[in-house]
């Protein structure tokens, strides 16, 4: 049976495996594009992909080889742990292996030969990926369950840790906590961290091997003991603060504090019967993808959501680069049964008429606007033409060639801008769509220049000769200015200077 078959089977067996939230989008989109749905990957047994680390160094038995006894028969000490022998070694990976043919394989520690120094062992289970636990976490101890231990979780890939559940045969003595069971909890305090005595009391090593972190029982508080009313649970997950987070972790750690004692005090004359041995750890969980992915895969040995809804990141916790249109939001289980994708990063908001696939969100005016409009377009939706271009009305707005260059003549036009129909605004004397030709009575000379004289009307005065319409060559004693005024050509020569005024008049005028 392949892994995918195993996973499919698990999905059927587990309560969260119903066919709900299993697709991210409709297969056949309408004109407006596909419909998006809240979606999440199926649960799997995460022991298949966990990394196991055991501390302190040297805690695993067999180096040097060591004999050990059992609690059930402390006088039969024929068993041996030897790290150099494949048959007698008990390395950490045997906590997560797939056992075949009924053969139980287990990790085992050194014995408590250093009593009264405590026998401490930490087992760190690493995924470095946000996971949401969907079924009981079950740790199977061979040769007796610890007298006290703590299950811890990290939600930041092992940077910080917090207790998940305390386990002791005497909670008050071990942790100063009153013993509780999950069934004692109410909906209002279901996320409380408790100490339970249910999995630590001595009942015989073979009779009871499991230490459980109860997930089903906690779900059952909302969904009923048989987990039939999952809708109630999904609703609670969405509306009760901290509930989803309680079931979320990236790594787990078991802190084993005191081994099984066989129901009595520590017997110093036979310390070889005290040790820890774990044969299996089951962690049924799904990748947390913020309801934006229906698959999760190993990439470069790390779990990674296969994000939909134009989201990206290991947990689909942001918009993908081309779709940075809006503040990212997680999907929602509500309203049931399909939930809401909250696909904040998708198309309709970032509608750029095919001239861009990037938007940015301007928070304070609550506007999504296209960025980097191509094909000489501009505007919030790339719906206008850039300065110097006009829209070809016969083409659709989405056509690459919809914006046509105005080509307004630099000398003949008032500005590079043209009208909607492509007409440039011309300076005096210039004409044509591009203002690159002259009106009658003007000559093109770096733009339309008004003619000073005219070949037909011969407007050079006093017998001047018209040259290039712009200048009069005047007869002797006439002056000509060659500017564009049109009137100053071939004036009479200047008059001699006036004679001085009569002295008397001059005196009068000065009084
Ligand atoms: Ca095993």
UniProtKB/TrEMBL annotation:
<dbReference type="GO" id="GO:0009888">
    <property type="term" value="P:tissue development"/>
</dbReference>
<dbReference type="GO" id="GO:0007409">
    <property type="term" value="P:axonogenesis"/>
</dbReference>
<dbReference type="Pfam" id="PF00055">
    <property type="entry name" value="Laminin_N"/>
</dbReference>
<keyword id="KW-0424">Laminin EGF-like domain</keyword>
<dbReference type="InterPro" id="IPR008211">
    <property type="entry name" value="Laminin_N"/>
</dbReference>
<dbReference type="Pfam" id="PF24973">
    <property type="entry name" value="EGF_LMN_ATRN"/>
</dbReference>
<dbReference type="InterPro" id="IPR002049">
    <property type="entry name" value="LE_dom"/>
</dbReference>
<dbReference type="GO" id="GO:0009887">
    <property type="term" value="P:animal organ morphogenesis"/>
</dbReference>
<feature type="disulfide bond">
    <location>
        <begin position="426"/>
        <end position="435"/>
    </location>
</feature>
<feature type="domain" description="Laminin N-terminal">
    <location>
        <begin position="35"/>
        <end position="286"/>
    </location>
</feature>
<keyword id="KW-0325">Glycoprotein</keyword>
<feature type="domain" description="Laminin EGF-like">
    <location>
        <begin position="406"/>
        <end position="455"/>
    </location>
</feature>
<dbReference type="InterPro" id="IPR056863">
    <property type="entry name" value="LMN_ATRN_NET-like_EGF"/>
</dbReference>
<protein>
    <submittedName>
        <fullName>Netrin G2</fullName>
    </submittedName>
</protein>
<dbReference type="InterPro" id="IPR050440">
    <property type="entry name" value="Laminin/Netrin_ECM"/>
</dbReference>
<dbReference type="InterPro" id="IPR000742">
    <property type="entry name" value="EGF"/>
</dbReference>
<keyword id="KW-0245">EGF-like domain</keyword>
<dbReference type="Pfam" id="PF00053">
    <property type="entry name" value="EGF_laminin"/>
</dbReference>
<keyword id="KW-1015">Disulfide bond</keyword>
<dbReference type="InterPro" id="IPR013111">
    <property type="entry name" value="EGF_extracell"/>
</dbReference>
<feature type="disulfide bond">
    <location>
        <begin position="406"/>
        <end position="418"/>
    </location>
</feature>
<feature type="region of interest" description="Disordered">
    <location>
        <begin position="492"/>
        <end position="511"/>
    </location>
</feature>
<keyword id="KW-0677">Repeat</keyword>
<feature type="domain" description="EGF-like">
    <location>
        <begin position="449"/>
        <end position="484"/>
    </location>
</feature>
<dbReference type="Pfam" id="PF07974">
    <property type="entry name" value="EGF_2"/>
</dbReference>
<feature type="signal peptide">
    <location>
        <begin position="1"/>
        <end position="19"/>
    </location>
</feature>
<keyword id="KW-0732">Signal</keyword>
């Amino acid at each position: 049976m392949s892994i995918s078959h195993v996973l499919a089977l698990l999905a059927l067996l587990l309560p969260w495996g119903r066919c709900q939230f299993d697709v991210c989008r409709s297969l056949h989109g309408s004109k407006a594009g596909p419909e998006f749905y809240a979606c999440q990957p199926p649960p799997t047994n995460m022991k298949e992909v966990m990394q196991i680390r055991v501390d302190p160094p040297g805690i695993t038995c067999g180096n040097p080889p060591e004999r050990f006894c059992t609690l059930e028969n402390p006088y039969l000490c024929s068993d041996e742990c030897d790290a150099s022998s494949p048959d007698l070694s008990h390395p950490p990976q045997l906590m997560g292996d797939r056992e075949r043919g009924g053969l139980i394989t287990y990790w085992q520690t050194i014995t408590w030969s250093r009593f009264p120094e405590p026998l401490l062992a930490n087992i760190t289970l690493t995924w470095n990926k946000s996971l949401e636990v969907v079924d009981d976490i079950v740790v199977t101890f061979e040769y007796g369950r610890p007298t006290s231990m703590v299950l811890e979780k990290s939600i930041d890939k092992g940077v910080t840790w917090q207790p998940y559940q305390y386990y002791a045969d005497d909670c008050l003595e071990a942790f100063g906590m009153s013993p509780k069971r999950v069934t004692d909890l109410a909906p209002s305090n279901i996320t409380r961290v408790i100490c339970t005595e249910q999995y630590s009391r001595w009942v015989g090593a073979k009779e009871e091997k499991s230490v459980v972190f109860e997930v089903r029982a906690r779900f059952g508080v909302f969904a009923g003991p048989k987990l039939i009313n999952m809708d109630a649970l999904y609703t609670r997950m969405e509306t009760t603060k901290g509930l989803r987070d309680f079931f979320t972790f990236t790594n787990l750690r078991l802190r084993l504090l005191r081994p099984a004692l066989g129901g009595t005090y520590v017997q110093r004359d036979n310390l070889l019967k005290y040790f820890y041995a774990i044969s299996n750890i089951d962690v049924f969980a799904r990748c947390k993808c913020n309801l934006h992915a229906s698959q999760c895969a190993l990439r470069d040995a790390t779990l990674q959501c296969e994000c939909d809804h134009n989201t990206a990141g290991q947990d689909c916790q942001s918009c993908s680069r081309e779709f940075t249109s809006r503040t990212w939001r997680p999907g929602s289980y509500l309203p049931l049964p399909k939930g809401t994708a909250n696909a904040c990063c998708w198309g309709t908001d970032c509608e750029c008429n095919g001239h861009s696939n990037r938007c940015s969100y301007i928070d304070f005016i609550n506007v999504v606007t296209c960025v980097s409009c191509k094909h000489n377009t501009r505007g919030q939706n790339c719906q206008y033409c850039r300065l110097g271009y006009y829209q070809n009305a016969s083409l659709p707005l989405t056509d690459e060639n919809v914006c046509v260059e105005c080509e307004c003549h630099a000398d003949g036009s008032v500005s590079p801008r043209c009208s909607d129909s492509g007409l440039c605004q011309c300076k005096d004397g210039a004409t044509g769509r591009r203002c690159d030709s002259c009106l009658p009575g003007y000559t093109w000379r770096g733009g339309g220049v008004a003619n000073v004289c005219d070949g037909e009307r011969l407007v050079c005065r006093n017998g001047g000769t018209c040259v290039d319409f712009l200048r009069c060559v005047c007869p002797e004693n006439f002056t000509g200015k060659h500017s564009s005024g049109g009137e100053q050509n071939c004036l009479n020569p200047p008059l001699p200077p006036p004679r001085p005024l009569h002295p008397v008049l001059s005196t009068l005028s000065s009084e």
